[in-house]
Design goal:
Chain A has 186 residues and is α+β, with helices and mostly antiparallel strands. Helices cover 46% and strands 12% of the residues of chain A. The chains are: A alpha+beta (186), B mainly alpha (493).
Chain lengths: 186, 493
């Protein structure tokens, strides 16, 4: 199912506000950030509760981060199927409703239908891919959360969602790993 | 090996004995890249003003030409609009395939593509203009089913079976789908850069970036989805652009001349479009590097590498041209001989040879020359000739097709009915059609609108793909090996 991306977003919106606070550690180099990530893992912070924020895509697993799974690849298939069905319906129904014999070919002949069906398939796939990117990236949020501009200069951010009682421990882990700054969401 | 990381501006890539010079590889300093590019974007060297003003003036000329043409000929006589169709198809050819270059070289993980990616993607904005330019083209496209003066219902041969009217709905849907896909590619590719740049800009751009970048933080998941999204959209774009090119060359060229059936023309048009798109990107990149203030961020390597691809496409173009010729020449059917005479050896002989010189005989030796390729100016110089040659190609194919198409007045073809299967119109070959002042204005307007929209795009969006260049700087080093200094590339995947 491609829907979990959307459902997850809806669940996030509908669920009661979490007591967890966002803490952002800022690191000058990838090694320190990875060390902090290891520290959080050892402290029992669930892997789903922290994210590395980077200004460019780092190689897979280089920061020791969790493996992310997404279902983006399903969206174009769903869109293509819907588009293809629409194409078949439009062409078949048009030709049955307004029968026009062309070049002695059958009224319902596949080659000319293929052009419209292909177009419908492509349009559906493109549209659903765009929708998929929006939802699978978790883009629709109403306000930008905790962030630091220095991430745009090559610093790495480690954003952790922690319970209030874990805040001190998380800050300690980050500082000991070499964080240049630690911020807490107000 | 003495490693130099983040070798700024590639000065260390100089090799006394090596095969590349000091400006071949440019490895930008990642930490200042966002600020540096935003600063360069604010500065407007003279060349950008010239491009903006020239683009604006040519666009106005194009609009004037269009209005003159509409007032003098109306929209019912499609023969009068051949040069408009040629101008539209020319703009479409150059710009529709450009975003594909970014996708294709990203697929192949070519490091040299990084400075070219955003240039290619910004052409997506021209695709929105293509939709507007397409509307008059659809209006002048004659209906498929026409009542002959004898009272007989005739069907013009085309790829559409279930239509009697102008197939504008399907054509427009294809064009909109293509534009949607290209704009989506631009948005997804530029999102991380807009998110980073919003902290460095103010005013309109800050608002624009804030809206378009949404809640992009650069999390692992977001990078993965972005990467996957670009791959899927790139594949869909390829499938879509080839399809729309097929529609355009079939409906606006082949189907216009009764009896013209050619399976080589659609792939030929696609190859031409790839060649034109890459040539346009290289020309723009050269202008940015040479006069636009981006010399420190765009090295010679992209030109060096891309010129080989351009050489391949130039050879493919010539191969398809020969295949187009030889099939008809050997076929020797009357219709085939008539089409060859009309498009190549009689009416359009001069334009045919001029086009051949511009698309092959001049660029080929330039692109073959190692020196010209390595120095960075070879590919852009060849690109200029290729673009001129492609303009002539479009006149020879599209304007010629519209000029020779059966005249329709009041919904009636004033022709014998066998004209629909036999090249009565081309025997003897009609005279070549020449552009009037309005036609020349419209062709210039086509060039102008591309320049104008691209320049506006460069002002609105980060003109270089910041995240890709930063990623590249992570994987590229200039190192010493024995006595030479060489580029070392990391391949994480």
């Amino acid at each position: 199912m491609a829907m979990p991306g959307i459902l997850q977003q809806l669940r996030d919106v509908m669920s009661p506000p979490s007591t967890k606070q966002a803490i952002l550690g800022l690191f000058q180099d990838a090694e320190s950030a990875a060390t902090a990530g290891d520290g959080l893992k050892e402290a029992g912070i669930p892997e789903t509760d922290y994210d590395f924020l980077t200004d460019s895509p780092y190689p897979e697993g280089s920061l020791g981060e969790r493996e992310e799974k997404h279902r983006l690849y399903l969206y174009p298939f769903i869109g293509a199927l819907l588009g293809l069905s629409s194409g078949i319906m439009i062409t078949a129904m048009t030709q049955v409703a307004y029968p026009l014999m062309t070049g002695g070919k059958p009224i319902l002949s596949l080659p000319p239908m293929a052009i419209v069906c292909y177009e419908g398939t492509m349009l559906g796939a493109i549209l659903f891919t765009v929708i998929g990117i929006v939802f699978e990236s978790r883009l629709p949020k109403f306000q930008l959360g905790i962030y630091d501009e220095r991430i745009t200069q090559g610093f790495l951010g480690l954003r952790v969602k922690a319970e209030p009682e874990q805040r001190y421990e998380v800050t300690q882990i980050m500082n000991s790993a070499g964080a240049v700054d630690v911020k807490t969401e107000q | 090996m003495a490693s130099e990381t983040q070798a700024h501006h590639g000065d260390q890539s100089h090799s006394e004995h090596g095969h590349f010079g000091p400006e071949m590889w440019v490895i930008p300093e990642a930490s200042v890249l966002v600020a540096e590019v935003n600063e360069k974007q604010r500065m407007t060297p003279g060349i950008w003003r010239v491009i903006f003003i020239a683009g604006g003036v040519l666009t106005v000329l194009g609009i004037v030409g269009f209005v003159l043409k509409a007032l003098s000929d109306g929209f019912s006589d499609h023969q009068a609009w051949g040069f408009y169709i040629a101008a539209f198809a020319f703009v479409f050819t150059l710009t529709a395939s450009a975003p594909l270059a970014a996708c294709a070289f990203r697929f192949t993980k070519s490091h040299w593509r990084r400075p070219l990616s955003r240039i290619a993607e910004i052409f997506s904005l021209v695709s929105l203009v293509n939709i507007l330019l397409f509307i008059p083209a659809l209006i002048v496209l004659p209906d498929i089913g026409v009542m002959h003066e004898s009272g007989e219902q005739l069907v013009r041969r085309s790829i559409w079976f279930q239509e009697l009217t102008n197939p504008s709905g399907w054509l427009m849907a294809g064009m909109i789908g293509l534009s949607l896909c290209s704009v989506a590619i631009l948005w997804v590719a530029a999102m991380p850069d807009m998110a980073q740049s919003r902290h460095h800009v103010s005013g309109f751009r800050a608002t624009l970036y804030g809206k378009l970048a949404g809640c992009w933080y650069g999390t692992k998941r977001q990078w993965q989805v972005q990467k996957g999204g670009l791959a899927i959209l790139g594949a869909l774009y390829f499938m879509m652009v080839v399809f729309v090119q097929f529609l355009i060359v079939s409906d606006f060229a082949m189907a216009m001349i009764p009896g013209w059936k050619d399976s080589i023309l659609p792939p030929f048009y696609t190859v031409i479009s790839f060649q034109g798109g890459l040539a346009t990107i290289l020309l723009v990149a050269y202008v940015m590097r040479r006069w636009g203030g981006y010399r420190e961020l765009i090295g010679q390597a992209p030109f060096w590498a891309a010129s080989k691809v351009l050489l391949g496409l130039t050879l493919l173009h010539t191969y398809h041209l020969f295949a187009f010729f030889i099939t008809y020449w050997y076929g020797r059917l009357e219709v085939e001989q008539a089409i060859l005479n009309y498009l190549m050896f009689d009416s359009y002989l001069g334009i045919f040879w001029a086009q051949l010189f511009f698309t092959f005989f001049i660029p080929f030796p330039i692109l073959v020359s190692n020196h010209a390729r390595r120095e960075g100016w070879g590919a852009p110089l060849a690109a200029v000739f290729i673009i001129i040659g492609l303009m002539l190609w479009h006149i020879r194919i599209f304007a010629a097709a519209f000029a020779a198409a059966p005249a329709v007045e009041g919904g009636l073809y004033y022709l014998p009915s066998d004209a629909f299967s036999f090249p009565a119109l081309l025997l003897p070959p009609p005279e070549a059609t020449f552009p009037g002042i309005a036609d020349i204005f419209m062709i210039l307007g086509g060039v102008g609108i591309v320049m104008l929209v691209f320049r506006i795009g460069m002002m609105m969006l980060p003109p270089l793909s910041l995240w890709e260049m930063k990623e590249g700087s992570m994987y590229q080093r200039v190192d010493t090996l024995i006595r030479g200094r060489y580029l070392v590339l990391g391949k994480p995947e």
